[in-house]
Fold this sequence. Notes:
It is globular and about 60 Å long. By secondary structure, it is mostly helical. The protein has seven helices and three strands, in the order αααβααββαα. The two termini are about 35 Å apart. β2 (about 100-105) and β3 (about 110-115) form a beta hairpin. A three-stranded antiparallel sheet has the order 1-3-2. One of its GO terms (molecular function) is DNA-binding transcription factor activity. This is Transcriptional regulators. InterPro entries: ArsR-like_HTH, HTH_MarR-typ, MarR/SlyA-like, WH-like_DNA-bd_sf, WH_DNA-bd_sf.
Amino acid sequence: MSDSRDLRSQTVDAWASTIPDIDRQTMETVALIKSISEAVDRASDQACRDLDISAAELELLVPLRHHNGPLTAARLADMLHMSRAGVSKHLRRLEDRGLVVRQASDADRRTAEVTVTDRGRTLTDSTFARDLAAHRALLQDSLADPTTVAVLRRINSAIMGRMDELT
Length: 167
């Protein structure tokens, strides 16, 4: 068990001993989701190590790579549930390295449309293969159970539905 999971479990236990009627199930669920997310992020960071791209940049390039037509930075941020400022910062870095191009939109000159360059497509394809392999190695035991992905889809759908209601 990793140190972060130990700390999260200890935190749940400490809160529960301080406030016996606290919602322990919600705390434990959030701790599990965060732990899984961090493990997947670490696997992506490992896959991108020693390459001309970060895991966060790859996360932007992957949907851009196969999207029909250009996307705006704002639309990309919304689709990926990321901050617009973070997306803009990463796109600027990708553009500086010639991996994406931003051009003023014909529909609204104040808006830039983002497209992947040939160099960006090549790097995305090779890096995404490494990223996917790292995730497969991380998840291989969990994916042996055919119900795992179905359960994760249901959880994701329920959470995203609640997010839409809250916004």
